[in-house]
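Memo to structure team: turn this sequence into structure tokens by end of day. - J.P.
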Amino acid sequence: MSHHVPRFADLTAPEIASLPEDTVAVLGLGAIEQHGPHLPVSTDYVIAAEAASAAVASVAAAGTASVVLLEPLAYTKSDEHSWSPGTIWLSWDTLMRVLVDIGRSLSTSGITRLLFVNGHGGNSALGQVASRELRKQFGLATFFAHLSVPPDQGGSSSRADEHGLGIHGGHGETSMMLHLRPELVHQERGERKVPSHLTGYQHIGFGKPVSFGWLSDDFGTDGYLGDPTTATAEDGKARFEAGVATLAEVIVEASRFTPSA
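Reply from structure team:
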């Protein structure tokens, strides 16, 4: 059963001005970027947009917090995939200005709480910097969430046999797209692309104490990392629904969160 999604863009200006002070505005951050030969370039956008919408609908139906859904951003910081056809990316300073300008506009509209739902790991560091900038400039309470924390940022790996390296077009993303947009997935074109030699480094690597600057064609894996061959729609449905349930809890917490005791 689908629930009504309270969309910011569907409200009138006076309706927006009269939203409760603890209303959480939710902004999905997607990406349009190469995801190998088996997934569409819209993968991160679809996952972020669908997750944000489903979580907002869940909270609105339960009445556990006041929440509005902003239109998601499709084009973000995808420069690690800039070598590939199909990738449309904003430079880091352009995206920073976009996020700051959106925050400024929301503040003018009376919104005081903003939750980013990020579907692309390449946005994370910049999103955290933007979150602090929005806090400093406009007094917004800002929060930065993922549907699931990427393995290269300390999250749990989709599958143990991906060794924490299934970060782009691997089992997890392919499974979720088989659930959300199966008609766009060409699983038969995907192969296992796990650069397992990286496990030989103790300190440097994904999810390790020392990070490294990388482009997605650095690994010799055709631009994707992980094992899409093991993906299933059933696993994608379970991952998506678990992530949405957590995001719904995050929205409720964000509506009342305060750093001070």
